[in-house]
Design a protein that fits this description.
The radius of gyration is 31 Å and the shape is elongated. Helix 7 runs antiparallel to helix 8. Helix content is 71%, strand content 0%. Among the domains are: 76 residues; 68 residues, no CATH class. It is built from eleven helices and no strands.
Length: 219
């Protein structure tokens, strides 16, 4: 009676891990004797298996969370206390575990620590500009500046926004409380070109003048 599985001719039992390790050691020793230890060590370094590219965090998956963060920040709450990086990383690792939930959690925890604040503040800036009254936008910018005192560009954004407000008041009149910064800017841009150019020179410089002209021309 033929046994199952059938024995293949010329094939012995599979080598154990110990046998494989011993064979490898013997082969390395043979190469050392033939080529010398420095040459073998150098060859092993060159042929060392390289790690694959770092898995990038799926920021698209986290975008809804960052939007909630931004809204909380705009409305005066602290999103970083309401939703800690640990909780977000744990939630993400459960939904998108990848090859390893633990490694996904650790990677995301590190990425959130490095990248979450910038994303939240930037979204808060844009959302407050188009979806909230202009006074809320100004308050949001001041809170961002307070949170990031070393960032030089945020004070410039605040100054530009304040110039748009001043231009509206001087040329058009009082601003309705519900107006967004976007509506204020659009109202100023509808003014005669000569005024817009004078306002831009006073508030934004030559670069601002070019920006306003491009908007007036529909570029």
């Amino acid at each position: 009676m033929t046994s199952y599985p059938p024995k293949l001719p010329g094939k012995g039992p599979p080598a154990s891990l110990a046998d494989t390790s011993r064979d490898l050691d013997e082969e390395i020793q043979r190469l050392v004797k033939k080529y010398g230890k420095p040459a073998v060590v150098e060859a092993l370094k060159k042929n060392k298996q390289k790690r694959g590219p770092k898995t990038r965090t799926d920021w698209k998956f986290l975008a809804p969370i960052f939007r909630i963060d931004a809204v909380d920040f705009i409305e005066g709450r602290n999103p970083f206390e309401l939703r800690t990086n640990y909780k977000i990383a744990n939630f993400y690792a459960e939904k998108q575990p990848g090859h390893s939930p633990i490694s996904t959690f650790r990677r995301l925890l590190r990425d959130l620590k490095e990248g979450r604040p910038d994303r939240v503040y930037l979204k808060a800036y844009f959302y407050s500009e188009v979806e909230y009254p202009y006074e809320t936008h100004i308050k949001t910018l001041n809170r961002i500046i307070k949170a990031l005192p070393s960032a030089e560009h945020w004070p410039s954004f605040l100054e530009i926004s304040q110039h748009w407000i001043d231009d509206h008041v001087q040329r058009i009149g009082p601003i309705p409380p519900h107006f967004t910064m976007k509506e204020i800017r659009e109202a100023v841009l509808k003014q005669p070109v000569n005024y817009v150019l004078e306002a831009s020179k006073a508030s934004l410089g030559l670069f601002g003048s070019a920006y306003l002209m491009s908007n007036k021309n529909g570029d």
